[in-house]
Specification:
The chain is α/β, with parallel strands linked by helices and 467 residues long. 43% of the residues lie in helices and 12% in strands. It has helices spanning 3-20, 31-38, 49-60, 82-94, 105-121, 136-154, 159-162, 180-188, 209-217, 240-250, 305-312, 342-376, 400-416, 444-464; strands at 129-133, 171-175, 196-199, 223-228, 253-257, 282-286, 298-302, 381-383, 391-396, 423-427, 430-436. Strand 2 (171-175), helix 8 and strand 3 (196-199) form a beta-alpha-beta unit. It is globular and about 65 Å long.
């Protein structure tokens, strides 16, 4: 075996062992420990590749978070399905630059297949364009770039030629409780606070349609509506039918941030949650959340392919395209040199099949609903959301500072058991404990263990606090 091949063998052997053994959910190394392991002087001489892999394992493993395990409930993070991991290894081995068709024909066609499957699974307009990007943040950026181009074109301004100089001011309507990544994407696109019109939200963080309608009626600027399918705290869904009606009435672009919630469309009995969402102009969705793809994976889906291609266009004499070539991926996303993300997505979707995708979504929705019902029955425990999706937002001990402190204490004691990974959050001026049922490994047993420990912890705390 060649020395460099030994590094591959070592990594493969470790990977098989790592996913099979019990591992801590929480990092065991301090920041100082990690700096000592990683931030050392770079040696002058080369080192044996297999030994370097061993050094990487020793340095990194104490600082890893257990988001691939069934007891991880802290954030909306997937668990890297092993089929996707294997395909991701091959992606790196093949070393294809998936920027244009001619640099990676297989990668381009794999993305073409994945795009068609996604439109079918999510039941979105089949002629929509699909770009494979790093995640929902970049998917939102890509979709909103197309939106910016299109609404300005409708107003008679050529953004691709003139930029934003002299352009009409675009008004973006977004919930005042939207995900921060949406605001970041807008800022990256040159939109400032003066462009953003926050819309009052309800107790689930969703736009109040009457407030949006009033705001749009007062404004004759080019307009974009940014809606949510799966609010990060409540898991709630905007009223897409009403929003689509408003978009049509005002010639606005409707974009839907569906990072995880859009996947509920694969279940017939949950289609009411996203009724009307197919009337939007664009949708952003993650692959590395509910689909359990390895990081990084997101999908930018745009009904108007020409608007997407126009906003993403990169033209140069050496970026050739011959008759008979397939699509150029760079026409659908903002990157040129990039990894071939379509291979892992293609492999995971084929491994799961339609029924496998439905099974994951249904299992997690059922777990969330059942767990929320049991927790709501405990004295002094408030479930703050409707639990339409996979998110449960909890509050312990009532209103005010004491409830904030108790909620944070419950989270701390739950983490201290080492059997769960959770994090408190701030939402609507209160400290809450947000549980995200998202790991591919999460089943009823993990939920039962979580409920048992929460019951015990809150039973002890609540008694001391007179709840």
């Amino acid at each position: 075996m060649k020395p460099r091949d030994s590094a591959l063998a070592r990594a493969a052997a470790y990977a098989l062992e790592y996913r099979q053994r019990h591992r801590p959910l929480h990092p065991t190394a301090t920041t100082a420990d990690l700096r000592e392991a990683f931030c050392r002087p770079l040696e002058e001489a080369p080192r044996d590749p297999a030994a370097v892999i061993d050094d990487l394992i020793a340095a990194a493993e104490p600082g890893l978070v257990g988001n691939t395990q069934d007891a991880f409930f802290a954030w909306v993070m997937g668990a890297s399905d092993v089929t996707g991991v294997a395909a991701d290894w091959l992606t790196s081995i093949w070393g294809q630059n998936a920027g244009i068709f001619q640099t990676a024909p297989a990668a381009a066609i794999a993305e073409e297949a994945v795009g068609a499957w996604l439109l079918d699974l999510l039941d979105l307009p089949r002629n929509s364009a699909v770009g494979l990007v790093t995640g929902a943040t970049m998917a939102g950026f890509t979709c909103l770039a197309a939106a910016r181009s299109e609404v300005l074109a409708r107003a008679g301004h050529d953004a691709e030629r003139l930029g934003l100089w002299g352009a009409p001011r675009v008004r973006i309507h977004v919930s005042d409780d939207t995900h921060v990544s949406n605001l970041a994407a807008l800022r990256f696109l040159g939109f400032g606070e003066a462009n953003i019109a926050p819309v009052a939200s309800d107790d689930q963080g969703l736009m109040r349609v009457e407030a949006l309608a009033a705001a749009m009626a007062r404004d004759d600027s080019p307009q974009i509506i940014l809606a949510q399918a799966g609010h990060i705290n409540s898991g709630g869904f905007d009223d897409f039918t009403a929003l689509a009606d408003l978009a049509e009435r005002h010639g606005a672009w409707l974009h839907v941030d569906g990072a995880f919630g859009l996947w509920t469309r694969v279940l017939d009995d949950r289609r009411a949650l996203t009724a009307g969402v197919e009337r939007a102009d664009s949708w952003s969705v993650d692959g590395h959340k509910w689909l359990q793809l390895p990081y990084d994976s997101g999908f930018a889906i745009v009904r108007h392919g020409r608007a997407l291609n126009r906003s993403m266009d990169m033209t140069a004499s050496y970026l050739t395209h011959a008759p008979g070539d397939g699509r150029n991926p760079s026409e659908f996303n903002p990157e040129l040199s990039r990894r071939a993300r379509g291979f892992a997505a293609w492999a995971v979707l084929r491994a799961l099949g339609r029924s496998g995708v439905r099974e994951i979504i249904r299992r997690h929705l059922d777990i969330a609903r059942d767990l929320a019902g049991r927790l709501a029955a405990l004295p002094g425990v408030e479930v703050c959301n409707r639990v339409d999706c996979n998110q449960i937002t909890l509050r312990f001990g009532g209103p005010g500072a004491e409830g904030d402190a108790l909620t944070a204490e419950v989270a701390g004691r739950l983490n201290a058991t080492g059997r769960h990974f959770v994090r408190p959050a701030a939402w609507q001026g209160r400290t809450v404990l947000r549980l995200s049922v998202i790991s591919g490994a999460c089943g009823p047993d993990a939920a039962d263990r979580l409920f048992a420990d929460l019951s015990d912890i809150w039973g002890a705390l609540g008694q001391d606090s007179h709840f």
